[in-house]
Amino acid sequence: MCETAGGTGEAAASMPRPARGEAVDPVALEPVDEVEIVTLVDNVYDALLGDDERTRRAGSGAGVVAAPQFEGARTTAGMIAEHGFSALVTVRRAGRSATLLFDTGRSPDAMVTNADRLGIDLGDVQGVVLSHGHFDHAGGLTGLMGLRGVRSLPMVLHPLVWTRRRIAVPGRDVEELPTLSRRALDGEGFQVIERREPSLLLDGSVLITGEVDRTTEFERGMPPPHQAWTGGEWAHDPLVLDDQALVVDVRGRGLVVLTGCGHSGAVNIVRHAQRLTGVDRLHALVGGLHLGGPAFEPVIPPTVAALTGLAPGLVVPGHCTGWRAQHALAAALPDAWVQGSSGTAYRLTAA
Question: Does this model's pTM top 0.85?
């Protein structure tokens, strides 16, 4: 995925473009009194990170498991970290709260194991949102299936999540990625809702962006080795059109934007959310920004510059952001940047 050479057709495919479908903006997104985002799965788990007024860490004592080599035959296991992402989003408005699951991680058991170690009952979740179809965001659906209260659970996703994809790096074996099965999800009783356009959930308190406008000149998407099956051939898939984000408006603070991988581009996503809602202020950006690796490192400086100009109060880059981008964002936004970690809760309240 580090190979960036491509022809004119591939360059044209990754040029800025508007999202398909009739634009409805501003969307009537209801401001909330509080939003809490709990990172159930991320690439990193650091048990030594401390809490602050908006961040609560799982710590090293989470998850007591059997371990016969210790006195008492028990130990604390902490959180599982893996190359994937999952977050639990709870919004509170007018004395009522509701919870959504945003992505499910990579492996069948990491998300449900971490939720259990945090004392979270996933049976209380009122809906599932998939940011896109890549397997490191949908793998944990296996663990979710069969849990109490999961059957008939609404699942909001873009219709292209079923796309077959592969990584074809020249000189290496082709790697076909696991593809989501609509038949399997229907068979488990999920209420699958396919939407290209924006969706309002939880009584209008949560916005799912739908397909994101690509308006910046520098966020060109995936390099040529990332390919999709068109029905007749494998072709470069730079845009990952099924990529979408979750947005909440915290009263008096501004937008909280949660991304999975951010394949649409972090700046594109924020601008799209601003356009849809009519809310200019970005309060927080949390999730994967896909700025890791040689193919994406040239995108780091303009991305950091644009995000710095937006002056968010909290930035928690996770998952596929990459260490170079983490360092750049931490340097540019020292008061806003926070290290992500599996098992961390971020609570943002109204002004």
Answer: yes
